[in-house]
Task: inverse folding
């Protein structure tokens, strides 16, 4: 390999490294939107009140995270594989308060799930942007147990 080819390969490699660092930095800066059109943006305090009132909570994270820790009584409907209109209807009526959460402001799952629920005609969708991260930080109860969802195995 001559020197020109070595320099060219090194420059390409360096550019690739710089690009991947930029993408990583961009991902760590991600913040989910503060509002979902048609949904109720729900604070930690409001989520706790809804919890105390017996509202339906839906965790849209992956099964591993749900099993590790989730809000007591929350149903698991993984956004990627298990969240659809039929499964949501099995746990909540369209006019019933339903609190949708994921892993906090750096996670987009609750945002996307809330959008879908609103599009399916749910009228009391509570978009809990702070999710399990804020819930745990406040010292509110969490449980680690098997899956409680529609169609989970």
Result:
């Amino acid at each position: 390999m001559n020197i020109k080819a070595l320099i060219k390969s090194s420059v390409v490699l360096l550019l690739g490294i710089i690009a991947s660092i930029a993408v990583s930095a961009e991902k760590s800066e991600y913040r989910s939107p503060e509002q979902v059109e048609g949904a109720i943006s729900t604070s930690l305090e409001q989520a706790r009140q809804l919890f105390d009132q017996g509202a339906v909570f839906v965790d849209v994270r992956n099964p591993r995270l749900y099993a590790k820790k989730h809000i007591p009584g929350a149903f698991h409907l993984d956004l990627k594989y298990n969240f659809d209109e039929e499964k949501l209807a099995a746990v909540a009526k369209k006019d019933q308060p339903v609190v949708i959460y994921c892993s906090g402001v750096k996670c987009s799952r609750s945002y996307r799930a809330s959008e879908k629920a609103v599009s399916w005609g749910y009228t009391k969708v509570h978009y809990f942007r702070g999710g399990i991260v804020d819930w745990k930080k406040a010292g509110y109860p969490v449980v680690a147990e098997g899956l409680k969802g529609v169609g989970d195995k």
